[in-house]
Amino acid sequence: MSDLAIPEVQTIDAGDAEEIRAARAGDGGAYAQLVERYQGGIASYLWRFSRDAGVVDELTQEVFVEAYFSLHGYRATGPFLHWLKQIATRVGYRFWKRRQKDRRNVQLGEDQWPQMPHDGSPPESASEAAQLVHLLLAKLPPRDRLVLTLLYLQGNSVEEAAQLSGWSRTMVKVQAFRARGKLKKLMEGMEK
Amino acid sequence: MNASSRESPLEQFERLASLARDEAPPTINVCDRVLARLQERSAAGDIRPLTSPPDREWVGLVIGAGIAITAAAIALMIGVPSWESMNDPLAGWFDQFNVVMQ
Question: What is the pTM of this model?
Answer without folding.
Answer: 0.71
